[in-house]
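Lab notebook, design round three. We kept the backbone fixed and only want residue identities now. Task for the bench partner: fill in a sequence for the structure below.
Input C-alpha cells:
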C-alpha cells in the first residue's frame, strides 16, 4: 500500500516598514505592493501642522503629510505606527515622547499599537505598546518559535549595502517559521538610505513567487501575540 505524506508547510512572513512618515514615499509604496499593506511609522510631531522643529538633516523641508492623508492610507488597510513625537535619541527621551505618540495613533485605529524605536535602540522605560521594533546587527529575521514582540528584529538591506540579487538569495534561504521585518525610510530621493522603487518592486515580486505571507506588524501581532494584546490596558 502506497502512503502519501504531506510536505510540512513552510511558514515564512515578511513585513514592509517605513520610518519618519514621508507621505509621497508612503503613497508610492502603497501602489507598488497593492493589494498587500505596509507599516508606516510616523514621527507624530512632524505631521502637519508641524508642532516640533525638525532638526534631522534627512527630514528638514520634507513633506510628512497631514492627518487626513495618513487616515486615508489607514482606511486602505495600511498600519500607522509610532516613531515617537520628535525622534530623539532614546536615552534622552522622556516617557511623554512615547505616551503622546501613542495617543496620536488613536486617530487612525484602535490597535494593536506598534512602535519603531529611533535609531533602533532600546528604551529604558516599560512602554505601553503591543510591539516594539528595534535593530539588530547580529540577526536578520525573527523566529516564530521564540518571538519577543517587545524586541523585534528588523533589517535594512539597502543601508547594509546589499544588491537586490544578493538580498533575494538571502530571502530564499530563510527557514520555515521565520519573520523578516524589512526596515526602510522612503523611496528614491527621500530620507536616509532611500530604497530605489525598482528595488522594492523586484523584492515584492520575488516574495510573491516564493509564497511568502506579507503582513503588517499589527497583523502579525494579532496572529501570534493575542494574549499580550488582549491584556493591554
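Proposed sequence:
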Amino acid at each position: 500500500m502506497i502512503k502519501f505524506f504531506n510536505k510540512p508547510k513552510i511558514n515564512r512572513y515578511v513585513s514592509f516598514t517605513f520610518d519618519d512618515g514621508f507621505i509621497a514615499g508612503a503613497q508610492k509604496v502603497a501602489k507598488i505592493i497593492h493589494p498587500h499593506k505596509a507599516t508606516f511609522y510616523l514621527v507624530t510631531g512632524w505631521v502637519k501642522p508641524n508642532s516640533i522643529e525638525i532638526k534631522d538633516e534627512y527630514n528638514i523641508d520634507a513633506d510628512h503629510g497631514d492627518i487626513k492623508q495618513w487616515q486615508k492610507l489607514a482606511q486602505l488597510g495600511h498600519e500607522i505606527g509610532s516613531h515617537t513625537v520628535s525622534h530623539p535619541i532614546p536615552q534622552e527621551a522622556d516617557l511623554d515622547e512615547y505616551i503622546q505618540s501613542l495617543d496620536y495613533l488613536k486617530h487612525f485605529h484602535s490597535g494593536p499599537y506598534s512602535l519603531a524605536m529611533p535609531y533602533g535602540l532600546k528604551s529604558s522605560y516599560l512602554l505601553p505598546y503591543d510591539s516594539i521594533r528595534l535593530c539588530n546587527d547580529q540577526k536578520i529575521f525573527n523566529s516564530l518559535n521564540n518571538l519577543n514582540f517587545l524586541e523585534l528584529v528588523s533589517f535594512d538591506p539597502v543601508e547594509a549595502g546589499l544588491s537586490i540579487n544578493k538580498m533575494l538569495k538571502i530571502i530564499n534561504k530563510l527557514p520555515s517559521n521565520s519573520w523578516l521585518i524589512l526596515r526602510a525610510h522612503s523611496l528614491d530621493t527621500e530620507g536616509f538610505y532611500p530604497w530605489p522603487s525598482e528595488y522594492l518592486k523586484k523584492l515584492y515580486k520575488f516574495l510573491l513567487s516564493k509564497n511568502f505571507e506579507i503582513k503588517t506588524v499589527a497583523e502579525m501581532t494579532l496572529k501570534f501575540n493575542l494574549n499580550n494584546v488582549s491584556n493591554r490596558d
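Keep this in mind before ordering anything: The chain has seven helices and eight strands.
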